[in-house]
Design brief:
The structure is a homodimer. Chain A has four helices and nine strands. Chain A is an alpha+beta fold. The first copy, chain A, has two domains: about 130 residues, Nucleoside Triphosphate Pyrophosphohydrolase (Alpha-Beta Complex), CATH 3.90.79.10; about 60 residues, Orthogonal Bundle (Arc Repressor Mutant, subunit A). In chain A, strands 1, 2, 3, 4, 5, 6 and 7 form a seven-stranded mixed β-sheet that branches. Chain A has a two-stranded antiparallel ribbon with strand order 8-9. Chain A is elongated. The interface between A and B is medium-sized, with 13 and 13 residues. Chain A binds a DNA duplex (27 and 27 nucleotides) through helix 4.
DNA sequence: CCAAAAGTGTTCTGACTACACCCATGC
DNA sequence: GCATGGGTGTAGTCAGAACACTTTTGG
């Protein structure tokens, strides 16, 4: 009952929803409920180390945006009395969930979570609030997108997170004009419309804008 | 060696400096060094509870701005392997430090700290950065000022924290015009000049502006 | 030729910056 | 009468919000 680490892993699922990774608990307590991935620290492991390990074990990715969120105590009579939470942002296309039937991982849309164990809804809410704020003054979304993408794809990510539609022209001005992303020169054809310019982030690490 | 709580208590000392409360360690390890107030949780105590207790024990105040800051691990081989840090803002005039000679508390200007134990300089730096950011989009300074104050006093607080001078007229427009503070009607005479209007905060609790 | 998404400019408003002089008071 | 700090207004710039039409393509 010492400290544990819990990770809120966000992605945009192919249906365009902001989603979070939950694990179906295969043992008591709260057997059968969904819960955020987490657990105790291994011997000699740091907090950040444990968060990275959890993230990699569950999704297979490691080089993504990961930040300490908040430290809760006595989270719904859970695993530990002090729970250090993290949040991570991953590009859905790069993830490989464990195919296990026990402790099965699965993406769940943030709007409309199932019942979760250990007051994990509080953690997810807090993480979502933080993510929304970070959108406004950082380039964190780089971690939710592939290295090249269209501006519309990028805008869809913002809209999924903020839960509201944005103006195409204002969006473009903001992210291109202020140097967050830049044109690659390449374009992509997609179905029955005009080809779209592909963009990339000017800097692919956390940055205030 | 479980979790401990540490509190970064900020105030503006009468000399106008942003200062932080440190305790002189009277026992090993790091005997004789300065360190932030902190310690283990009492039995059954919550993290927030421990932070409030520490704050009250050291300064005598309780109803002030207090926020969880960050959770560090292995802070310079200190008391605990997981250290949950908080930061608080107190009005210097209301504080009563313990007069003890052992474990003596004392205010230290943030620019020019003495050597501190357990990498506490990292914690103070982090807290100062957070405080500077919070100034820009919240009303947290209410907790550093008495209930009535002149705009010049308030501006001095901002300047002490940001470490730069500000324009009087722009400052006034911001805090009055946007409704952060309002006139009380009363004035204060102070020495050989024109009496100054006293102001108060429109809302005396944490608020985004 | 039609559907679908890409791309593009202008106007308005509100916030922030920089900047200099007069006023009330106590001594 | 002078030193001290209190109080005030204007002009310029920049970011953000609102808003509608044309272009390219595949079928």
């Amino acid at each position: 009952m010492a400290a544990a680490v819990v990770v809120v892993i966000f992605t945009i699922t192919p249906d365009g929803q902001l989603s979070v990774l939950l694990i179906e608990r295969a043992a008591a307590p709260e057997q059968g409920r969904w819960a955020l991935p987490g657990g105790a620290l291994l011997d000699g492991e740091s907090l950040d180390g444990a968060a990275v390990r959890k993230l990699r074990d569950e999704t297979g990715v490691a080089d993504v945006y990961l930040e300490q969120l908040f430290t809760f105590d006595r989270l719904g009579g859970g695993l530990a009395d002090v729970v250090v939470t993290y949040f991570a942002l991953v590009d859905h296309a790069r993830t490989r969930l464990r195919p296990d039937l026990e402790w099965r991982p699965q993406w769940h849309a943030v709007r409309g979570l199932p019942p979760v164990a250990f007051e994990n809804e509080r953690v997810v809410e807090y993480a979502e609030r933080r993510l929304r704020n970070k959108l406004e003054y950082t380039n964190v979304v780089y971690s939710l997108l592939p290295s090249r993408f269209t501006l519309t794809e990028m805008q869809r990510v913002y809209e999924a997170i903020l839960g509201e539609e944005m103006d195409k022209r204002n969006f473009r001005r903001r992210v291109v004009g202020l140097g967050i992303v830049r044109e690659t020169g390449a374009t992509r054809k997609q179905g029955a419309h005009r080809p779209a310019m592909l963009y990339e982030f000017s800097v692919r690490e956390p940055m205030s804008v």
